[in-house]
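Support reply, case 0932

Customer input (verbatim):
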Amino acid sequence: MALADDSYSLRDLKLMTGQSTASLINIERVFAETYEDQQRLVERAIDYCGTRMAENRHLKQDRKEDELTIDVIEMLLGMGYDATHDTQIGGHCDIVIRGRRDFLWIGECKVHGAYDWLLKGFQQLDTRYSTGLPGQDTGDVLIFSYNARLDDVVKNWIEHLTKNRNDVTVDVSPLDNLVHYSTHLHPGTGRPFRVRHKPINLYWKPDDKGS
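Our regenerated output:
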């Protein structure tokens, strides 16, 4: 006999997934209703993508910005997200995720080479792509870093950002001190616009290589 649609609780479904982070995110995504819950889960999904990329960074040393971005997109699609690359929203966005009730999250991806390059990405997200409307007032700057000492990269980036954007306030994530949140008033709507600055470690230079 077929089971009714409500035969399983959210807890039951989570238990069925075991320890799979991607599956847990996918299940919670289905049940997420509020803008805040959708945003929180997108950030968890991006964190998961960043972890997987860092684990396999030895295979990504020659990858360009678009290739790394598509790596993220493919993992997001695997978690059930409506995620696209190069979608037109005020211009060509790197990552666009759509959700319930017109939820819209935009990620701007940059391979770190210069801090002005990262600043350009922030400005694109702020002034070109984002709408600043309810449910569309958050996004990420994803920093793919092939450099050593990611902590120094992040520190220098935040200093560069606040020097060039004195309207921005920055807080450290309570979950990861490499992740920062900046907040400012959106130039289009005047509403608070929050950007998460998420670095992804791709540095790989083993001392035993060639030995």
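We compared this against your earlier run and they match. Two observations from our side: The beta strands are 82-84, 87-88, 92-93, 95-98, 104-111, 138-145, 169-172, 180-185, 192-201. DSSP finds six helices and nine strands in the chain. Please reopen the case if you see a mismatch on your end.
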